[in-house]
Structure formats: C-alpha cells, structure tokens
C-alpha cells in the first residue's frame, strides 16, 4: 500500500487535519474518566450538587467539541479517500490502455474489472480508516495506559498485560488471514470470468441447453469463494471474543485488587471507576484495531493486485521522439512490407514464421488459410497490436516501430473479426475513426459498406440508439457498420479481418465491388476463409501453419499451390473455380 501513496499527494491537508482532529477528540475522551472520578469523589461524596452540575457541564462541552472535531475528520477522510480512489481508478484505466494485447491477454479482462472496482473500493476504505482511526485507536490505548499510571502504578500493570495479550492476538490473526484474502480476490476473478462468459454467451448456452452445466460451474466457483471467505471469517471472528475476554478479565482484576486498595485507603472509589473506564476505552480501541486489521489485510491483498497492474509494462513501446514523416528515400515504397517476420504468443510457439511479402499502394490483397493458420496474427502486426518477435514490418517503407501510435493507426482502418459496437447512436459509432466526420462522410461510408439501405429505413436513421455490443442489431448489420466505421476516416490501409463472415454472398459481392470502385488509392487487405471473398484480389497470400504456402493470383495459385487448391475445391466445384 505504501507504493500507492503518490495518489494522496493532493490531499496532504486532509491527511494532516483529519488525524489531528481525531487526536483532539481522543484527548477530550481521555479526560472524561478523570472528571467522572472527580464527580464521584468530590461532588457525590460531599453531596455538592453545584459541583456535580459544573463538572457535568464540562463533560457536555467536551463531548460537543469532540463531535465537532470528529465531523471535520470525517469530512477530511471522505474527501481524501474518494479522491484517492478516483485517481487510482483513472491511473489504472490509463495504464491498462497503454498495454499491448499480450499483457491484456495475460492479465485477463475479468481480473482487470475486479481490480478496477472491488480492489480499489477496498483501498478507499483503508484510506478512510487511516485518517479516522489508525492514529486515534493506538493513541487511546497509550493515553489510557498513561492515565492509568497516573492514578495507580501497580494496577496499571494489569493494563500493560492486557494490552500485550490483545496485541499478540491481533498479530496471530493478521499473519494467518492475509493468504486467505489473496485467495478470495483470485476467486472473485473466477466468479467475474464465469459471470461475464455466461452473460455474453447466454444465447449459445441456451441454444445447447447447457444452463444447468453452467450453473454447476458457477456454483462450484462460488462455493470455493464462500469457503475461503468463511475460513477467513472464522479467523477474523476470533478477534472480538478474545479481546473481550482479555479486557473483561482485566476489568475483574482491577475491581478485585482495587477494592482492597480502597479498603486500605490507597485509592478512592471514583479512581477505581476511572480505571475501569480506561480499561473499557482500551477494549473499545482494541476492537477498532482488530477491525482495522481485517480492513488493512484486505487492502494489502488488493494493493498487491493493483500494483501488479502498474508494474506490468507494455511490450509494444511507442517511439515518439522521432519525426515520423515519409522521406524522399522511401517514396514509392510498398504500402505494407514484411521482411522475415516471425511472431509467437507468450507460452506457445510461433504463430507466424518467416513471412516475407509486399502489398503495393492501392492494391487489394487477400489472405486465406485454414483455422489457426495465422491470418489474424499477421494483420495484427501491422497496427502494432503485437510486435514482431523477429524481422521487420514496414508501412510506407518505414518500420512500424518508428511511428507514433497515433500516426501509424491514423493510416490504418481495421475491422476486427468480432463486430464490436458501443452504446450510443449509429452516428456516434461511425465517428470513432474521425470525430469531425460530416454527414456526407458518413453517408459515403454507409453506402460503400452496404449499410445505407437498412440505416435509411430506420425511423431515427443514424440517430438510432445502439445498445452495448450492438445487441439490438443483426450480426450482418453489426459487421457492415464496423466496416463503415473504418471507412469514415478514409484510411490509407483498410484491413478487413474476416469481417464479412455474417454477410450473404450477394451483399459480400456488392461490398467487394463498392470497395474496388470507391476506394481508389486505398490499400485493402481482406482476410477470409471464403475463396469467393479473395479470389478477385490483386494478390492472394495463402497461409498454412503460420507459414506462407503460396503468393499470387487466384488462377496461378489454383494450379501451383496445393493448400489453396484444396481450400477452393472444398468450397467450389472445379468449373466454378476456373470461371
């Protein structure tokens, strides 16, 4: 948690004022037993009502002042803790967005969501308790011990013994509960993962009637979470009973030995009452400390998970110090060039290996291959979603690593395999690639993507609200809108990563014709498993097991490339292939 202190630098005033106010309140609280003893030993014994009223008024005044200081502390704690949580969440969100796909794959979406929400909430609570109680509770314990010593040194030994025993109990519980809270956080990640998969894939689960299986899977994970929480709760539950037993035993000892001192005239009755009150204060303070132990052990586990995110650096580093402009030397270079490129995901072998090819400006390149052949991996290397393990990827003759992200991705419009839309209007989604896009830009993109027909028939047109993920649209409509979104910015390079899989053949053909006719000068990369989608491309790259099996035009590849021929004959009749 100490490493996260940088997020509190704007709240130094609250961090100072809050604890000071709590200390002042604690000082007032420590005077109450002394005043109570004075009332008993002087006012009550002498039957002096005026004295009792005077001291009673002083107690009320101290209580009112203590309340005022407590409210100031509470306000300071609220401002600091909420501000801290806001800053941590914002910093985490910004940092997560700097990570490459490799790091996001490693950490996992459900875990990141849990860390952004549940873990940060626990840290917020810890900050609030830090200001409100961390200083006050120990101060009350120490103050009560000192005040007890001023009353009677021999009976104060009971206080020290009780404080030591309670401290040992706290240490025992704290050291054994931290591992449980770490396991609880991991179990929460698993619950979040299963919940996310169930909600996003609910239609698939119902289609295969796997509701019961998924329920059992969730129940198993939930039961593991509950079991760990119960074991942690059992440990935490020991705190209050043990501290109560120790404190009450100390109170009994004070009354037992104190009675003898009163009988011998060494102590007054009010002083015994004061000592009992101080022991009660120690008990209450220790209970607060025991609760703080639970809160801070939780927070320590959460802080470790939050720091893990901050410690995760991106493997795709942006170079912004260079002037990223196309120089005279590279004018006329291919739009995209791969030079002996290899790449492998963490923990696995090469996904693509020894790729060498070029894509000329204004050309259309088709990429085809079987499932897992590395098609999507190849195109993800162009916008630097991942960095090549070996070799170079060049855009306009410049290594993609020498571009800033903004400039590189400003050249590229990419339509991913999964058609992802965001909540908002159609127009809002289409302006993702170009914030100042005009209605004419949007209309042009809709027409090329074959979306104009269905959008124009909507009563709201481009102002139609889309639910999260575009669930109120069909799969084909979502795909066409994501293509339109990429086209709005009029990129130099358009990557269509199997983005027409939900389109019928007629719409697919119309889309390809529109792209050919309306995107002159744009380099188009079409990834597909359909021969019909790539057959008319200027160049087709055939992948097999991450390696290039063939490069060329459709007819040449059909004659010379066995992998391509096999793909063609699996989808078309021989006479259709040659037409």
Question: How do the helices and strands line up, and which of them pair or pack?
Answer:
Blueprint: H1 12-44, H2 49-96, H3 101-107, H4 109-134, H5 136-151, H6 153-200, H7 202-207, H8 211-237, H9 239-263, H10 269-311, E1 336-344, E2 350-359, E3 364-369, H11 375-380, E4 390-395, E5 398-399, H12 405-411, E6 412-415, E7 424-425, H13 426-430, H14 439-448, H15 452-456, E8 465-466, H16 475-488, E9 493-497, H17 505-518, E10 523-527, H18 531-534, E11 539-544, E12 547-552, H19 554-560, H20 562-571, H21 574-578
Parallel strand pairs: 3-10, 3-11, 6-9, 9-10
Antiparallel strand pairs: 1-2, 1-4, 4-5, 7-8, 11-12
Name given to the CATH homologous superfamily of the largest domain: ABC transporter type 1, transmembrane domain
Shape: elongated
Question: What's the overall average pLDDT, rounded?
Answer: 84
- What percentage of the residues does DSSP assign to strands (E)? 5-15%
- Give the number of DSSP strands: 12
The count of helical stretches stands at 21
By CATH, the topology of the largest domain is ABC transporter transmembrane region fold
CATH architectural group of the largest domain? Up-down Bundle
- In helices, the fraction of residues equals 55-70%
Weakly predicted, low-confidence segments: 324-329
Rg estimate, integer Å: 35 Å
Main sheet specs:
6 strands, mixed
Strand order in the sheet with the most strands: 6-9-10-3-11-12
């Amino acid at each position: 948690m100490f490493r996260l202190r940088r997020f509190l630098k704007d709240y130094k005033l609250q961090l100072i004022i809050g604890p000071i106010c709590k200390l002042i309140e604690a000082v007032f609280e420590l005077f109450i037993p002394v005043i109570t003893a004075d009332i008993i030993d002087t006012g009550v014994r002498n039957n002096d009502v005026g004295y009792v009223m005077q001291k009673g008024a002083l107690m009320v005044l101290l209580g009112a002042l203590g309340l005022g200081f407590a409210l100031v502390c509470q306000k300071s704690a609220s401002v600091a803790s909420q501000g801290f949580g806001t800053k941590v969440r914002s910093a985490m969100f910004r940092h997560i967005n700097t990570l490459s796909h490799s790091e996001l794959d490693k950490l996992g979406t459900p875990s990141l969501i849990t860390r952004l929400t549940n873990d940060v909430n626990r840290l917020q609570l810890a900050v609030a308790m830090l200001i409100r109680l961390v200083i006050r509770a120990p101060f009350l314990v120490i103050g009560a011990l000192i005040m007890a010593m001023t009353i009677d040194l021999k009976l104060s030994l009971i206080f020290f013994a009780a404080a030591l025993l309670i401290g040992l109990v706290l240490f025992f519980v704290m050291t054994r509960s931290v591992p449980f809270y770490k396991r609880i956080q991991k179990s929460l990640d698993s619950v979040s993962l299963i919940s996310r998969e169930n909600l996003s894939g609910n239609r698939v689960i119902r289609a295969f009637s796997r509701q019961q299986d998924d329920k059992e899977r969730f129940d198993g994970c939930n039961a593991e979470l509950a079991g760990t929480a119960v074991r942690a709760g059992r440990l935490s539950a020991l705190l209050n009973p043990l501290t109560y037993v120790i404190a009450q035993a100390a109170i009994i000892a004070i009354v037992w030995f104190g009675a003898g001192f009163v009988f011998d005239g060494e102590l007054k009755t009010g002083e015994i009452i004061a000592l009992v009150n101080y022991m009660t204060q120690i008990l209450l303070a220790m209970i607060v400390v025991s609760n703080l132990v639970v809160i801070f052990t939780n927070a320590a586990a959460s802080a470790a998970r939050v720091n893990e995110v901050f410690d995760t650096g991106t493997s795709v580093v942006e170079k912004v110090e260079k002037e990223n402009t196309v120089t005279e030397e590279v004018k006329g270079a291919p739009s995209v060039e791969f030079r002996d490129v290899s790449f492998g995901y963490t923990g696995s072998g090469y996904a693509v290996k020894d790729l060498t090819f070029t894509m000329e400006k204004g050309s259309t390149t088709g990429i085809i291959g079987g499932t897992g052949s590395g098609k999507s991996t190849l195109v993800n290397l162009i916008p630097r979603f991942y960095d090549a393990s070996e070799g170079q990827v060049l855009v306009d003759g410049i290594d993609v690593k020498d571009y800033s992200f903004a400039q590189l991705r400003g050249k590229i419009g990419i339509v991913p395999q999964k058609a992802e839309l965001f909540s908002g209007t159609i127009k809002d989604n289409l302006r993702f690639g170009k914030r100042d896009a005009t209605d004419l830009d949007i209309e042009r993109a809709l027409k090329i993507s074959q979306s104009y027909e269905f959008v124009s028939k909507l009563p709201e047109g481009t102002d139609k609200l889309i639910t999260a993920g575009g669930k109120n649209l069909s799969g084909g409509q979502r795909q066409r809108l994501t293509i339109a979104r990429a086209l709005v910015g009029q990129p130099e390079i358009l990557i269509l990563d199997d983005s027409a899989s939900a389109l019928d053949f007629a719409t697919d053909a119309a889309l390809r014709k529109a792209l050919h006719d309306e995107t002159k000068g744009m380099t188009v990369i079409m990834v597909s498993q359909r021969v019909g989608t790539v057959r008319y491309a200027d160049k087709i790259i055939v992948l097999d097991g991450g390696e290039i099996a063939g490069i060329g035009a459709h007819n040449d590849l059909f004659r010379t490339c066995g992998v391509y021929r096999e793909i063609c004959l699996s989808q078309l009749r021989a006479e259709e292939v040659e037409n």
